Amino acid sequence: MESYLISSHFDLITPDGCIVDLKKIDQNTCEVVIKIKNISPAFVGFHTDEKNSFFNIKSTLAQLGLDSIQKNISFQKDKHQCEVVVNLFGVSEIGKFLLDNLTNGDFIGKIFTAEESRKVRDPEYLIRMFGRTDRYGKPLLYFDDKSKEDLFLEKKMGYTVAFLPIKKGVVKYTKDIKSFILPLIKILRQRNYPVRNLLKIYQTFDENEKPITKKNDMLLVKTEPLYIRTVFAKVKEEFLPKGIHHTSACILEPNTMASGDIYEFHGVSDEELKRIPLEFFTLEPHREYVFFEDRDQLQHKLENPETLFKALKTAPKPEDKLAAVFIVKGTQLNDLKEKDWIIRDAKKHDLPGLDQPERQAILIDKYIKEQPSYPFLQAIENGLITSQGILLTRHFPSPLLKRMLLSNIIQKCVKGIYFEYPSLSRDDYFSHEDRAFLLDLAKFAIPVYWVDKTNKEILRYVVKPNKDAGMFVPVNLVDTFRKATFFGVYGSNLIEGNFAEELEKLLQGLKDLRKEVDHPLLCKNTPLALVTGGGPGAMEVGNRVAKKLNILSCANIVDFRATDKSVVREQQTNPYIDAKMTYRLDRLVERQAEFYLDFPIFLMGGIGADFELSLEEVKRKTGSSPANPILLFGKPEYWREKITSIFQINHKTGTIQESEWISNCLYCIQTAEEGLKIYKDFFEQKLPIGKKGPIYENGFCEKY
Description:
Cytidine Deaminase, domain 2, about 25% helix, Rossmann fold
C-alpha cells in the first residue's frame, strides 16, 4: 500500500529509459535496446498482459521527424526495471539526421500501459471536470472557450472518444534547425530535462498550408492547448483518416499544463486532417482529482453498515495494532484486502512536558509519524493523493494528528473519518482530548462516524446546537437529534423503582401535548429525545420507555469498570440506546456538565443522583440553564429527606441569598398527570417559576 504513496510516477507509465544498445539496420532505421530503471512497484504493466504496454517516444523527437515501432518488451518486476527493443526510423530528412547522431545513454522515451479497465467510458466523467480547479487554482480540464463548442465528446465502441479540432495551417522549421540537433543529443543524456519548449525557437506556423500528409515528411499540426490533469489521453489511431498515422509519441500526460498543442503525423493521404481522436485512461483512483460528491457508488456503500463491517474485517490482525486506509471509490471499499492497509504499533512515550520543550516536540513528532493514518495525510499534503475520500481506521485517530487533519489541504480532501473502536487502551471510552478533537473536526466540517458493533449500525458525531458537546447518533436520526428537545432521567443504577408505567404515560403525554401548545421547546414539529447515564436500574427504565415510544434514546456512558482505586460499582450498559457519548471515569464531572438537558426528571437515586440534582440547581442559579421545571418522581417524604434540610440551612445562614427562588424549579409528583399539568402550564407561560416566582420552604414544590 505504501509504495504508491511515495511514487512520483503515475501507475500507467514508467520513468524515461535510455538507449543501452544501438544497431544500424539501414540508412533510415536503427534497432535500439532501451533500459528503464526505478519503475514503481505499483506500475500496472507489471501486473497485466505485456501486449497492453508499448513504447512512447519523446514528443520532442517525434516533432523532429523520428518514430518508433516496438518489437519486444521484457519486464523484470523483481528488479523494478524493463527492457524494450524498438526500431527507430527517420520519417523526414531532419529525423534521419537526428537518428544518425543518437548514441547510448540518450533518454528517448518511456512505457505506457493501455489498461482496458482504465479506459474512460462515460463522457460525463470528463465533462464534470470543466470549471474545476486543483488546490492551486489550476484547471483540471480546460480547452479554449472559443473552441470548446467544436470539441466533440462521443461514446464509441463503449468508450469515450474526443475529437479535437486542429488549427488551420501546419508547423514548419526554420533552416537552422539542424544546428539544434547536436545540443539536443547532449540534453537527452540528462533524465527529465525539459526540451520541448526549446523547439519553438525553430518552429514557424504557416496558416495557409493544408494539413495533408506526404511521403518522407512529418506533418505537424496545432490545436488549442488541452489541459488535462485527471486522465491520460492517447491518440486513437482507428479513427484517423485512412493512410494517416500518428507517431508513437501518442500519449498526453496529466503532469503538464500545456499538453498536446502539437501532434505529429506521417503517411500518405489526400484527405485533409481536421480533427484528432483521443481516448482516455483514468489515473490511480487516489490521484484522479475526483470529488466526493461525484462518488455516488461510494456514498451509497458508506450508508450500509454491513459493507463497512466487512471492510474493517480485512484489517490486519491482531486488533491491538493500529490500522488505517484511505478510500476514494466504492469498488476500493468492496475489494479491500489486508495488504491495502497500513498497520502500526505506535507506542506513546512518556512525554517530559513543557519543562523540556525540545524533547517534547521530538517525541510528539515521532509518535505522529508512527500513526497508520500519517502516510495518507502526508501523501495528501505532498499532492500524491488528490481525490477526495474517507479515512477508514480501526481506532479513532490520535488527537495529536489534529494539526494535519485540520490543515486547509487535508481538510478539503478528507470527507469523513470512519472508525471501529474509540480507543486502543480504553475500548469504547473517549478521553477528554478525543472529545475536544471531535469538536474541532465538527467545526472544520470533517464528519466522523463510529462503525459501532454494539448498535450494529453507523453512528455520526453530531454537536448539540449552541453547545460544546455532542453525541454519536444513528445517521438516519441526525436531524431528529439536532431539532430535539431533551428530557433526561436521573436515578439509581441499583433499583428500577416502580416508575416505568408513570414515566411512559408522562412521555406519551408530552408527545400528545405537542399538538396543543406552541412553544420554542415544544410544538407539533418538535422531536423529543431522552438522555440517561446509559446504565441499569432507573437509567434502563428511561431508555427502555423512550425506545418503546419511538423517542430518541440517548446516553452519556462512563467507564465504571473496576480499578485499583475505584470504589464504584461496575455498570453494564443497557441495550436500549440509540445515540451515545462515552467518558472515562476521571472525567465524570465533565460528563455530568454535558448532559445539557432542557427538562430533567429525577427518580429515586443515590450519591450520583444527588450530585446531578445539585448540578442542575447550580446551572439554573448561574444562568447556564434557563429556569425550566425539574420533576422529582416519588413521595414528598423521600424528597424532603433529600432536599429540605440542605435548603433550609442554606436559607437560614444566608448562603443562598437571592437564589432562594431555585426552590420553585423543583416539583414533586407521583403521577404522570401531575407532571403533564406542570409542563402544560410552563409551555403556556402560566407556571410561577424563576426569579419572580414563589419560594418554597421545603426547597421544592410538594403539590402543584
